Amino acid sequence: MAALGFAENITVEALEADPYPIYAELRRSAPVAFVPAVNLWFVTRWKDVESVAKSPDIFSAVVGSSPVERSFGKPTILTTDGETHKQLRGGVDPKYRPRTVAAYAGDLVRSIAEPFLDQIAERGSAELMADYFESVSTLSLARSLGLADIDMPTLRRWFYGLAQGAINFENNPKRQEIADAISAEVGATILPTLERLARAPDDSALSHMLHDGMPEGTTRPIDFLMPSIKVILLGGMQEPGHGAGSILAGLLSHPGQLRQVLDDLENFVPKAVDEGLRWVAPIGTQTRQTTRAVELGGVTIPAGAAVAALVSSASRDESRFADPDRFDINRDEGNHAAFGFGHHFCSGRVFAREQMCLAVTLLLKRFPDLRLVPGKEPVFRGWEFRAPTTLHVSFGANPQ
């Protein structure tokens, strides 16, 4: 009963402030529990999270009251299974396969990152979330999609607006109003690009989504793709930028580990990236709906229930990671869960990880004496999307 009382008293504000102590208590006392504040069953342990994500016959991606579909329309790549998901994934995957990403990501990200680094060098200090990580992430994703003419402030505004809808499990009308307005703006803005690409394909991700796997002379309908494009814009802009911010916050808070990375960027930046993603998952959940009543974690989840498979909690499961709240780039305990499990495993994971590695490497090469500004230490926010709200840094007068 005490565990039930704990779950009943969880608030959205407490989750936004810091979900990790809440998840730790749930893993100990109620690993599967209904949380009324967000109208979701929380699944918190690694083995159960993996089971939910890999059992589409019991835990369907088709969710009856999805905030993603409410905000972006349907079908979306996140909220479908079967042939519809296969069709959507078949259009997205070609641009983001490992070999394809290796051919273009380096030049793309460098060309975007270097001008921001030049601006930071001129100022002598920076707020790295806005001045660098989010900027690089949003522009890299947009350019890979084929959205060449949309500027960074617009893309960041889109991200924050779309996010209000995607995380609106509590159905807050103010959040929904913001998301609906941005969703309509995104659709109207990118429609001409999609119409052009339908007539004249190129090598952009949007073009592949329209044409790949389709009979000659036909394309996937724009209305069919648009909700998923909004999902990809949100996740693809958010995950690399926010993940990189958390990674750097971890390094700057652990000087010994930062020195390890600086001494061997090629080998230790990827380790730091993987540990940062484990430590603070930029996207916290895979949401599902039960197709029937099912027993999990010692309780019965009813049929038709919305379930949050908390990849963020799974990545701090004590049964898999020693002292899981500690940031430690020298771990050797297996993969994190930040990119999810099952056939909904993040389609852009290779591109996202490569972006993070490049963004962190280029930054540390340019400013090896980077340090946090005293009194402005990073504060993290969010449970569905989590990252430092700001990351104030300074460096020496003569950065390399």
From TrEMBL:
> What cofactors does this protein use?
heme
Q: Which domain of life is it from?
A: Bacteria
A Pfam cross-reference name: p450
Family membership: Belongs to the cytochrome P450 family.
Q: What is this protein called?
A: Cytochrome P450
